[in-house]
Amino acid sequence: MKLAFLGAGRMAAAIARGALDAHLCTPAEIRATARTEPTRAAFAKTVGLKDHAAEAAIQPATENAQIAAAAEIVFLCVKPLDLVAVAREIAPHLRADNQLLVSVAAGISLADLQKAVGDAVPLVRVMPNTPALVGQGACAYARGATTTDHHTGLVEKIFGALGEIHAIDEKLIDAVNGLSASGPAYVFTVIEALADGGVLMGLPRVLAASLATQTVLGAAALVKETGHHPAQLRDAVASAGGTTMAGLEALEAGGLRAALIAAVRAGTVRARGLGAGLPP
Ligand SMILES: NC(=O)c1ccc[n+]([C@@H]2O[C@H](COP(=O)([O-])OP(=O)(O)OC[C@H]3O[C@@H](n4cnc5c(N)ncnc54)[C@H](OP(=O)(O)O)[C@@H]3O)[C@@H](O)[C@H]2O)c1
Predict the structure, then answer these.
(1) Would the CB of 16 count as within 6 Å of ligand 1?
(2) In this structure, how many other beta carbons lie within 10 angstroms of the beta carbon of residue 192?
(3) What is the maximum span of the chain, computed from C-alpha positions, in angstroms?
(4) Residue 1 CA to chain centroid, in angstroms?
(5) What is the SS3 assignment for 58-84?
(6) CA 124 to chain CA mean position, Å
(7) What digits encode the pLDDT tens for the residues 129-151?
(8) CATH fold group of domain 183-272
(9) Under CATH, which number does the domain 3-168 receive?
């Protein structure tokens, strides 16, 4: 299956890697564009394209239309504010009968995209996250008006190879952005802060970082594998008068819970605002 990535940044590389790992395409069937050489080289490295294959596959942004025209699935992976311009640029070259257009951009609605490329073009709007790079992504998608089950099946296969994928109504996608697309950055901050706490209490930096990372990974795995509510798992380890309860008191006093809830709200509100700056 021929895949085109317009915008060969981090997200495009993660998706291309997933498509290869899922055997949905061969390296020779991948094409991508970016404005600058370092981005093109980084894409080739992450996706594992070598020498001649990389040269043929990764092109300057001036080739967007040509590369989109030859693909079966076109992924729009540029930043949100560049998205509508790129969609308009390729629109005359798209074939509604046998192509699918997938956008991963934050804040740009299916309606805005459909306006840019025409009503007939099948569209899917996906909200992925960067743990997709290691096959642990959390992702949701909404389908456009002319999108068929065949199209959504392709999207589920590709993004399913990168982690979890959920079909949702488009009205929920900005909240997915605020939670799981932005969420890795919140959790990186939590990991860093836990490690800092360990260093404060005398642990060597490398040991503290390793313990903090594995603690977050292990806690998430325990929630997922047992299916228990996080509060139930927390209560099970917070014994009366114990060390964990003392730590939890400090977390409540510091407002961790309220801060994380506010972070998801802020990310969601910001995503809603991104589409507002589009050209008419
Ligand atoms: N990163 C995330 O966690 C995340 C999560 C969910 C959704 N998304 C969405 O994914 C999209 C891409 O994000 P990203 O993190 O992958 O950003 P990124 O690494 O900055 O990649 C965007 C790429 O687009 C290229 N580009 C810009 N204008 C172009 C044009 N006219 N034609 C072709 N390529 C062009 C840029 O190339 P140069 O570098 O050469 O300028 C850049 O490498 C965004 O819309 C974002 O909202 C990202």
Answers:
(1) no
(2) 13
(3) 69
(4) 22
(5) EEEHHHHHHHHHCCCEEEECCCHHHHH
(6) 14
(7) 999 988 899 999 999 999 999 99
(8) ProC C-terminal domain-like fold (1.10.3730)
(9) 3.40.50.720
**3-class DSSP assignment, residue 106:** coil
pLDDT of amino acid 5: 97
Closest by alpha carbon to 80, among 7, 151, 142, 5? 7
What are the backbone angles phi and psi of residue 92, rounded to the nearest 5°? Answer: -65, -10
User: Distance from the CA of 8 to the center of ligand 1, in angstroms?
Assistant: 7
Give the start-to-end residue ranges of the domains of the chain: 3-168, 183-272
Residues in the chain: 280
Task: Judge if the beta carbon of residue 50 lies within 6 A of ligand 1.
Answer: no
Contact present, 54 and 46 (Cβ < 8 Å): no
The answer to whether 2 and 25 are in contact (CB under 8 A) is yes
Region 149-171: mean pLDDT is: 95
Locate the ligand 1 atom nearest the alpha carbon of residue 38 and give its number.
40
> Helix, strand or coil for residue 239?
coil
Average pLDDT, the chain: 94
Helix/strand/coil for 33 = strand
Residues 6 or more apart whose CB falls under 8 angstroms from that of 62 comprise none
- Each as own residue / partner, the long-range contacts of residues 262-268 (CB below 8 Å, 24 or more positions apart, any chain) are 263/178, 263/182, 263/186, 264/175, 264/178, 264/179, 264/182, 264/183, 265/178, 266/178, 267/177, 267/178, 267/179, 267/181, 267/182, 268/174, 268/175, 268/177, 268/178, 268/179
pLDDT tens digit string along 221-280?
999 999 999 999 999 999 999 999 999 999 999 999 999 999 999 999 999 988 776 666
Three-state secondary structure call for residue 1: coil
Atom of ligand 1 nearest to the CA of 34: 34
* 183-272 matches 3-168 in CATH topology: no
